[in-house]
C-alpha cells in the first residue's frame, strides 16, 4: 500500500466551524496568542488560559468532522495513512482515522504541571484547584509557544518514510511543524492544499499547490495520487 503522510492544520477543521488562527476572523482575535497559548502566559494568568481552553473544549462538543476528515479516514482502506496534525481537536479520530499524531497536544487531555508523563483524559472544564494524583495543578495537555514539541522526532521519522506528503490547511509559519516537509524523501511527492496557501515557502523542492477548500480539493485529488 502507498504510504501517505498527511500534515494538517487549522484549515481542515474550518469547514466544521472551528476558526483558524491566522485568517482574518481567526481565533486569536480578541486574544493575544502569547497570553493564552504560551508558557509565559500560563505563568502570568493561569485562570485566563484555563478559561480559554475550557471554551475550546466546550466548542468541540458542538462541531463535527467534515468531508475532508471523512475522506482521509476512508483512504485507510486503500493506503497506509498517517496523519500528523497541528490541531488540538479530535475531528480526525471522530471521522475514523486511526493513525493520528497530535503534534501540538489534545484538547481532551490534561496533564500535571510538574510531571508531563501524568496525562489524563478530560472532557469538562479544568480549573485552578484540579490536581493530578501527586497533588500538582493540572493544565491543558497542549504544546504552547516556548515549549518543546515532544512528538517532533516521531513525526519527522514518519515523514521521512512517506511516498506522498499531503499538507492541508496550514499557513506553514509555525515551527518546528513547518519544517517537517524537509524530511520528505527526494522521491516523495509533496502536495499542498490550502484556500490561501503560503507563497513564501523556502524550498527548492517541487510542491504541487492546490488552491481551494480542504473538502473540495480532497474529493478531487485522488486522480493525482
Ligand atoms: N480549506 C483549506 N484551507 C483553509 C480553509 C479551508 N476551508 N480555511 C482556511 N484555510 C487555510 C488558511 O488559508 C491558512 O493557510 O488554513 C490555514 C490556517 O492557518 P493558521 O490559522 O496559521 O493555522 P495553522 O497553520 O494550523 O497554525 C499552526 O499555530 O497558533 C499555532 O499551535 C497553533 O497549531 C497551531 C499552529
Model description:
The chain has about 220 residues and is of the alpha/beta class. The protein has two domains: about 1-20 and about 65-105 and about 150-225, TPP-binding domain (Rossmann fold), CATH 3.40.50; about 20-60 and about 110-140, SIR2/SIRT2 'Small Domain'. The protein has helices at about 10-15, 35, 40-45, 45-60, 65-75, 90-95, 150-160, 215-220, and strands spanning about 5-10, 80-85, 100, 105-110, 120, 140, 165-170, 190-195, 205-210. Helix 5 packs parallel to helix 8. The mean pLDDT is about 95.
Short overview:
By secondary structure, the chain is of the alpha/beta class. 26% of the residues lie in helices and 21% in strands.
Set down the secondary structure blueprint.
Elements: E1 3-8, H1 11-14, H2 33-36, H3 39-44, H4 46-60, H5 67-74, E2 80-85, H6 91-95, E3 100-102, E4 105-112, E5 119-121, E6 138-142, H7 152-159, E7 164-168, E8 189-194, E9 207-211, H8 214-221
Parallel strand pairs: 1-2, 1-7, 2-3, 7-8, 8-9
Antiparallel strand pairs: 4-5, 4-6
The structure holds adenosine-5-diphosphoribose.
Residues 9-11, 14-15, 20-23, 26, 86, 104, 169-171, 174, 194-196, 213-214 line the site of adenosine-5-diphosphoribose.
